């Protein structure tokens, strides 16, 4: 695009007028008296002397960064899911008439850990909406981080080239540090054993699309619950709904940590731990299987080998799983779901992965240009 044409496009952020952004209050998507951050296109910016956005746009007016699952309330989730449904139609029609919604915008993907689905789905989402991508697949090894550059300095540099940053990092809390540094939106694409909020969004969206409801479901979380950022984020997000029951099924060495249990208790969410996958599967609407993550065990390969292969979704699980239920997995999988399960209509994990495209298209649109 010509420089003059790009300059005429609405910018995705505004300069903060007085104090630095690092000292500005953090936003959640729950009601707050704190002022919205001064960023977003014309549809989302709220600055001094302008009227507030219409009521149906209040959620996106407050959507600054995507850092953790618990920042979303039900109104925000409903709006994101509504836009995701619209994105399904946009994606279907993109082959004949490509969308230009994000034309002129640049997204930088900074991935310090390996990724296939998350990185490619973000990049596909940006391109499906007419935007462009700056990417580094292994920033830990093939960026200035290898020379000792701090994350903060990297973020300050990259924000000068782009309009939004998608970050995956090996350290828990890295996404928050990046967001506190940047003056453009930051999306957490997974920070070590911390959180993976966009995965949780697509997971809840998938449950809604597959089961038809979110209130009242029984959810079995299986596998590496101690290190799995996907199950941690999903637990935070599903707690927004009513009459939820969660079953934790995992080897002893990777049991769900107390912070998640305490959070669920504080929200009145019923949960229990079980060692019997078949019994849990017979009761659940959703079985959410995860991989035992070898990379989180360091040198304790003995612990990894003790945990691996203990809970496997196979024909025995299918035989007891209710007909309306679904099996989900954030992928990649190893041997924790047998290939024979793939042909069962209740196997939703590849549909789940495709839903990640729609959720990420929705987030990019909401963050950059609004509803």
Based on CA inertia axes, which overall geometry fits? globular
Strands of the largest sheet, in order across it? 7-6-5-8-9
Percent in strands = 5-15%
**What is the count of helical runs?**
13
CATH architecture of the domain at 198-353: 3-Layer(aba) Sandwich
Rounded to the nearest angstrom, the radius of gyration is 21 Å
The main sheet comes to: 5 strands, parallel
> What is the name of the CATH class of the domain at 198-353?
Alpha Beta
Write the CATH fold name of the domain at 198-353.
Rossmann fold
| Distance linking N and C termini | 24 Å
Pattern of helices and strands: HHHEHEHEHEHEHEHEHEHHEH
Q: Give the strand tally.
A: 9
Mean pLDDT: 82
List segments where confidence is low: pLDDT < 50 over at least 5 consecutive residues: 1-58
Provide an overview of this structure.
The chain contains 13 helices and 9 strands. It has helices at 3-7, 58-61, 74-93, 117-128, 151-158, 174-181, 197-211, 229-238, 258-266, 277-281, 301-307, 315-320, 349-368, and strands spanning 106-111, 132-136, 164-169, 186-191, 218-222, 245-249, 270-274, 286-289, 326-328. The longest helix is centred in the first third of the chain and has 20 residues, at 74-93. It is globular and about 50 Å long. It comes from Sorghum bicolor. Residues 215-366 form the Aspartate/ornithine carbamoyltransferase Asp/Orn-binding domain. One of its GO terms (biological process) is 'de novo' UMP biosynthetic process.
């Amino acid at each position: 695009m010509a420089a003059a044409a790009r300059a005429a496009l609405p910018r995705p952020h505004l300069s903060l007028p007085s104090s630095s952004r690092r000292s500005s209050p953090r936003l959640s998507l729950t009601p707050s008296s704190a002022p919205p951050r001064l960023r977003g296109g014309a549809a989302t910016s709220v600055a001094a002397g302008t009227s507030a956005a219409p009521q149906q746009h209040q959620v996106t007016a407050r959507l600054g960064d995507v850092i953790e699952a618990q920042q979303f309330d039900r109104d925000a989730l409903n709006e994101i899911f509504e836009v995701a449904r619209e994105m399904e139609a946009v994606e279907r029609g993109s082959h004949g008439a490509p969308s230009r919604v994000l034309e002129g915008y640049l997204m930088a993907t900074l991935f310090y850990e390996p990724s296939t689905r998350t990185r490619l789905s973000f990049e596909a989402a940006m391109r499906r909406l007419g935007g462009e991508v700056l990417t580094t697949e292994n920033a830990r090894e093939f960026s200035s981080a290898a020379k000792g550059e701090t994350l903060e300095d990297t973020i300050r540099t990259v924000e000068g080239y782009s309009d939004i940053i998608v970050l995956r990092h090996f350290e828990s809390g890295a996404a928050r540090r990046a967001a506190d540094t940047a003056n453009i939106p930051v999306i957490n694409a997974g920070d070590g054993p911390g959180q993976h909020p966009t995965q949780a969004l697509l997971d809840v969206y998938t449950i809604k699309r597959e089961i038809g409801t979110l209130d009242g479901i029984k959810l079995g979380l299986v596998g590496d619950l101690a290190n799995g950022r996907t199950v941690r984020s999903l637990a935070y997000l599903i707690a927004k709904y009513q009459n939820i029951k969660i079953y934790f099924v995992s080897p002893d060495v990777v049991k769900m940590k107390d912070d998640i249990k305490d959070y669920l208790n504080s929200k009145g969410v019923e949960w229990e731990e079980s060692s019997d996958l078949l019994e849990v599967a017979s009761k659940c609407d959703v079985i959410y299987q995860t991989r035992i993550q070898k990379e989180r065990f360091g040198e304790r390969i003995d612990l990894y080998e003790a945990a691996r292969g203990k809970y496997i979704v196979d024909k025995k699980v299918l035989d007891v799983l209710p007909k309306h239920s679904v099996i989900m997995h954030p992928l990649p999988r190893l041997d924790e779901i047998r290939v024979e399960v793939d042909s069962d209509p209740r196997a939703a994990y590849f549909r789940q992965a495709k839903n990640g495209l729609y959720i990420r298209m929705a987030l990019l649109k909401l963050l950059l240009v609004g509803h």
